[in-house]
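Hey, I was hoping to borrow your eyes for a little while. No rush at all, and the record is pasted right below:
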Amino acid sequence: MVCSGPRHTSIPWLRYPHHGAPPVAADIRRCHISVSPGSDMNRGGRTAIEPRRNMSTTPEPTPRDDNAMQPRLSFDRTVITTNTDEQVHTLVEFTAPAAQPIDRPAIDVVFVIDRSGSMSGAPLTAVKQAVHDVTRHLGNNDRCAVVTFGSDSETVLGLDRHTDQAALQAVRNIESNGMTNLSSGWLRAVDILNGDPRPDTLRRIVVLTDGHVNRGITEHDGLGDMVTRGRGNSITTSLIGFADGYDEELVGALANAGGGNDYWCEGADAAGAVFDTEFDGLGRVVAQNVTIEVRPTPAVAVAGVMNDFAVTPLTDPAFRVDLGDAYGDETRSVLLAFNTRPQPAGGTVEVAQLTLSWVDVTADFAAHTVTVPITVTAGASGTTDSGADPRVVDEVRILEAARDRREARRLADDGDTDAARRLLNRASDDLASVSGFASRTARTEIREDLDALEANAWSGMHSKRAYSTTREMSRKRSSSFRNAQPDDNPFE
């Protein structure tokens, strides 16, 4: 498997301790992998991958109904050499159906706002205005509530479709004080949602915090258990990290566990855009509990996921990738990696069975599944590969670069600037051959990170930006919201 660090067959860190949610402090240098018995992986460095010119053909799935989302499979290689250990990357893509604004499900959302002392002044003022603005965009059948937390929590607005003036005054009265008891605020939000449930309704908790938790449940595993149980009760959780004092690893992991999104809000100027993005996404949700289950065959020694999604081990060597929800017309993707065992003869090789599952929130919350095989062809050395897709090669490089940059960020935070620079340069090299705006933007940010390290000016803001933008690269959703810069040009 392609990883940005050494490869290992012993992977106890994959065995998540809390009911399928990802470990909060997982080693991000490695890929989520599942090892079949008898695996004999190459323990060398990263595998070199040469791009092929021809686009792949996608196997036809066999859906259970005509309206199902169709998984599309593309490969960096569709031909493996007989009697040789090989590596295959499979890009799984699917596009959700268009959202229907008139017929969309109702939304019940609770905003859980950190009012601890560090939020005083402009930050809390901006957040209060952003929450108020969102209440004005509620649909006729939507409801919202507002909870604040410091050392304890309180309900500012109960669950309802509030009048503009009443909501504005109640939210205006929020004042900062106390510590950071995130669990108290989240649990109060759950009580509000469970106290007045409605059928066929999207239920979401949106948490904003600017600090490290220091009251209530503070253990990362305990917080992971908490939001995972909420997801099991059809309550999803998104989190917003404000400024540079919060724990971004915890925020990202809780969003994975809670089936929601995570964001970095640099400061007061960006607060409105973050809340607008989250609520706009809620209004376009057409599928929830989207998962991809992968069951590798005995032809595979090692299989895993290169994106930063929650991965749950099933009966060995199977695993499940949890993607949360899907917006109307949104294309979601997962990059799988397979190390195949030597195949003694030519012909079709089934690598795995893939099952895409989701709940259609536009049609009575009905559950759907589609299963397709993942197959390649074994052939003699030099066999022409007419099905390989260079897009997959680019995606491997993008995700490798994201992992390297994330690890460089950790090293820079720990003061190991030389090792951080080496990884950042490698990430930049990986992206050099990848075209597109996202790649150019990432390389620009990497150069800025290198300049900061060279000038001994690495800061919490650099760290938060690196974390959030690598999440964007991996999950293909906006995570990073910066304050307006003097030289910003939205038309460039």
